[in-house]
Design a protein that fits this description.
The chain is α+β, with helices and mostly antiparallel strands. It has 4 domains: 165 residues, Conserved hypothetical protein from pyrococcus furiosus pfu- 392566-001, ParB domain; 90 residues, no CATH class; 87 residues, no CATH class; 86 residues, no CATH class. It is built from 17 helices and 12 strands. α4 runs antiparallel to α5 and α7 packs across α9.
């Protein structure tokens, strides 16, 4: 038995046995062409393929080998035959198919291996697994025919299938270990290889259990997590009792929870009534038992009731304050003769309030409104002067500082000096009274302003500066503004700078 390289064998056989220059095309009826019973490739996408053939014609003949009773078996082209069968249902011209018949000389196993190796179509993981299984059988058949392949058979299978050896190993685990509905989903290309690989390494009972509890296939990382927990001894069989004394039977629910929340597993080791994820107000576990749900609902109902009571009491406080403020404002409104349709805005970004609203609030009718505070709190009034003019009352009354709508001004205190321009002829009552004086100076078109001091001895305005203190001002005083003693002004101090007043020398 001679040792051969698989790649060289396939290449050599492809040239010698598949030389298209020596092959002949013959037309064979569709009803005489049989599917290869060993074919495992998917026949999906037939409508698109049929449309392409109808538009462009059959670009590649179907390869067949002789069968029994004058029939032929497909070697390559199962999807093309199925697409032609769809077309033939509407147009009989497609019932005769161009085919290339394989010669009988040589190994059929080798020929099938060549076409498996030459297939360039993108295969699903399930198809790759079946292909690998079939190729492995073909290689062993070739060994029986006298071929010997050096090295590991797995490497030769991977080479023929054009996939890596590690992936081939994973596909073999899936092919041999995946059970039940999971294998059906995998073959239908509805189960990712990562998930299938994790499930295939689980015991069959655990696979069956997951098949019952999971409506959708778990993600690959979730399946790997469940496998790791199983290998660590987890069984999701709770050893606890309910408050009524019955044993907990929610093992499958715990398992489903850990599949869906693999980053926060519970393993069925803690009662839902004691679990923080069942007690929390937000993002609570959606797999808690009915008892925990009922307890959580009761607590939330109690909290809701308390919150509603708090809000009701708060509304009473707000309404009481609003009623008190409304009574006060209504008094001013009625005094001013304001109609009920007159409105005002107590605070920016708040709705307007009518006099009619005030009248209702004062009577305890709040019109079903929900308040977030005292909307009539005078401290919040944005334009107090405007409101005082509207209600024809003083600001002090609006602020609650007086009960008089328009209180009389208080008389000035004894010795009080009005802060206003006084005529120049009027003399100060106190000696050394500081003032801002306005003087008419010869040669100056405008009046000159300066800080001055009254001298009772000289009966004249004088300069207060230390340099020229006591110097009489000969210019005519047109008006003067008294400077209160409480102002803190000091003659000759730094606060004289930047006053905008002229240098006293200008008046000399």
């Amino acid at each position: 038995m001679s040792k051969v390289d698989l790649g060289e064998l396939i290449a050599r056989a492809s040239v010698s046995n598949l030389n298209t220059g020596r092959e002949q095309i013959e037309y064979i009826d569709l009803d005489k062409i049989d599917q290869d019973p060993n074919n495992f490739y998917s026949l999906d996408g037939l409508d698109d393929l049929a449309a392409n053939i109808q538009l462009c014609g059959l670009q590649q003949p179907i390869r067949v080998r002789s069968g029994e009773s004058g029939r032929v078996v497909i070697v390559s082209g199962h999807r093309r035959r199925a697409a032609l069968e769809l077309l033939a249902q509407e147009d009989p011209k497609w019932a005769s198919v161009p085919c290339i018949r394989e010669r009988t000389e040589g190994s059929e196993a080798l020929q099938e291996l060549i076409y498996a190796n030459s297939d360039t179509r993108q295969l699903s993981d399930a198809e790759q697994a079946k292909q690998a299984e079939r190729v492995e059988l073909l290689l062993y058949q070739l060994k029986e025919e006298g071929y010997d392949f050096p090295g590991r058979m797995r490497d030769h299978v991977a080479q023929a299938c054009k996939i890596s050896a590690p992936k081939l190993a994973r596909l073999k685990v899936i092919r041999e270990g995946l059970k039940g509905k999971w294998m059906g989903l995998f073959q239908a290309d509805q189960l990712p290889a990562q998930t299938a690989y994790a499930l295939a390494r689980m015991p069959e009972k655990l696979q069956e259990r997951l098949g019952k509890v999971c409506q959708q296939p778990p993600a690959g990382y979730a399946a790997e997590r469940i496998l790791s927990l199983w290998e660590s001894g987890s069984s999701w069989e709770p050893d606890m009792t309910c408050p009524d004394g019955r044993s907990c039977k929610r093992g499958d629910a715990f398992l489903r929870h850990d599949v869906e929340h693999c980053h926060d597993t519970c393993l069925g080791e803690k009662c839902c009534l004691e679990c923080d994820q069942a007690k929390t107000s937000y993002y609570a576990c959606d797999r808690m038992c009915s008892k925990a749900q009922a307890l959580r609902k009761d607590k939330r109902d109690d909290a809701k009731e308390k919150e509603e009571q708090r809000k009701a009491e708060q509304q009473k406080e707000y309404q009481s304050a609003i009623q008190k403020s409304a009574v006060r404002l209504l008094r001013a409104a009625d005094s001013a003769g304001l109609e009920d349709e007159v409105s005002f805005v107590p605070e920016h970004f708040r709705g307007s309030v009518t006099i009619g609203d005030l009248r209702a609030y004062a009577a305890g009718d709040f019109k079903g409104r929900y308040f977030y505070g005292n909307d009539l709190n005078p401290v919040k009034f944005d334009d107090l002067d405007k409101l005082a003019k509207l209600f024809r009352c003083s600001s002090d009354y609006l602020l609650g500082l007086t009960e008089d709508l328009n209180p009389a001004p208080k008389p000035p205190a004894e010795g009080w000096i009005p802060l206003q321009w006084l005529p120049g002829q009027e003399r100060p009552t106190e000696d050394k009274q500081l003032a801002v004086g306005r003087f008419r100076v010869a040669g100056e078109a405008d009046l000159v302003r300066s800080i001055v001091r009254w001298s009772a001895e000289a009966c004249s305005w004088c300069f207060p500066s230390k340099k020229i203190c006591g110097e009489k001002i000969e210019a005519e005083c047109v008006a003067w503004w008294p400077i209160p003693k409480e102002s803190g002004y000091e003659v000759g101090g730094s606060n004289q700078g930047g006053t905008g007043l002229v240098d006293q020398g200008a008046l000399l």
